[in-house]
Amino acid sequence: MNQYNMEAVAIKNADEELTWYLACHVDDIPVNGGACVLIEGRQIAIFNFTRRGEWYATDNECPHRQQMALARGLVGSQGDEPKVACPFHKKTFSLTDGRCLSDEGYQINTYPVEVRVGLVYVGLEE
């Protein structure tokens, strides 16, 4: 797990207040995979879905068994929906909205991601 001690940049997006945190360098996240970063005491899983040319961020905790493991999960697609599968019990979660695709009883948080000049930023609500 990477931990960067960087100053947050507060910006206003539409009607919600987000603080953008420098999470890591682009090279810290494996191609078509994920890694965990610690931001404000939260474990955040960041995914570089290279096949789609997209980046995602979610909670690292799988709510099924409360294990901090989603960053190590398998990234793929279910139809057009980008997803991650928990490496332990294979619960699958949408990377766009966090809903569980294999069991309606679970949900994870998702966070906006921006990549700027080789650095990955994650936006968290205040």
TrEMBL record:
Keyword Disulfide bond: no
Keywords for the protein's UniProt record, in alphabetical order: 2Fe-2S, Heme, Iron, Iron-sulfur, Metal-binding, Nitrate assimilation, Oxidoreductase
Span of domain Rieske: 21-122
SUPFAM superfamilies per record: ISP domain
Name of this chain's protein: Nitrite reductase small subunit NirD
This protein's encoding gene: nirD
UniProt superkingdom: Bacteria
Keyword Heme assigned: yes
UniProt-listed PANTHER family: NITRITE REDUCTASE (NADH) LARGE SUBUNIT (PTHR43809:SF1)
